[in-house]
């Protein structure tokens, strides 16, 4: 699996450099996501701008990431959805469950907003 990771203090940005997120790639992505979670990364941004095709195993990997992040009081954000991936997510009605934003910068802003809100809640 070809990908790049930009680890920051508050989040990790993962950009897949593949055209397909399918049964060959999905287990590798799940493994990476579990590893980052085990390292203490609670907020993950997944940039899918290069992904032109995904199947149910790709959606499963995305849901694993969402569950891991929310289980640790973090946030998982998808960005850069292509038309096919966006249609599949909407058909699966996962657009109501997942945080989806159009750009990486908006996703980063969302992570910082989430962290601010968490900080305010803990002060109360």
Describe this protein's structure.
There is one protein chain. Helix content is 47%, strand content 20%. By secondary structure, the protein is α/β, with parallel strands linked by helices. The protein has one domain (3-123): 2-Layer Sandwich (Transcription Regulator spoIIAA), CATH 3.30.750. A 5-stranded mixed β-sheet has the order 1-2-4-6-7. Strands 3-5 form a two-stranded parallel ribbon. Helix 1 runs parallel beside helix 2. The longest helix has 20 residues, at 104-123. It is globular, with a radius of gyration of 14 Å. The mean pLDDT is 94.
Précis, in short:
The chain has 124 residues and is of the alpha/beta class.
Q: What is the count of DSSP helices, taking H or I runs of 4+ residues?
A: 4
Poorly predicted sequence stretches spanning 5 or more consecutive residues: none
Radius of gyration: 14 Å
CATH architecture: 2-Layer Sandwich
Structural class: alpha/beta
Task: Based on Cα principal axes, name the global outline.
Answer: globular
CATH topology descriptor: Transcription Regulator spoIIAA
Number of strands: 7
Which sequence of strands runs across the widest sheet?
A: 1-2-4-6-7
What is the end-to-end distance? 44 Å
In CATH, what is the homologous superfamily? STAS domain
Secondary structure: helix percent: 40-55%
Characterize the main sheet: 5 strands, mixed
Q: What's the order of the H and E elements?
A: EEEHEEHEHEH
Number of domains: 1
Average pLDDT figure:
94
Portion in beta strands: 15-25%
Top CATH class: Alpha Beta
């Amino acid at each position: 699996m070809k990908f790049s990771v930009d680890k920051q203090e508050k989040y990790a940005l993962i950009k897949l450099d593949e055209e397909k997120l399918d049964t060959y790639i999905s287990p590798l992505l799940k493994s990476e996501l579990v590893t980052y979670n085990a390292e203490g990364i609670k907020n993950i941004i997944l940039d899918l701008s290069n992904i032109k095709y995904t199947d149910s195993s790709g959606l499963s990997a995305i849901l694993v990431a969402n569950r891991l992040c929310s289980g640790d009081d973090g946030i998982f954000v998808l960005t850069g959805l292509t038309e096919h991936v966006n249609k599949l997510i909407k058909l699966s009605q996962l657009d109501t469950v997942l945080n989806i934003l159009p750009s990486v910068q908006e996703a980063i802003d969302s992570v910082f907003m989430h962290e601010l809100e968490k900080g305010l809640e803990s002060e109360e």
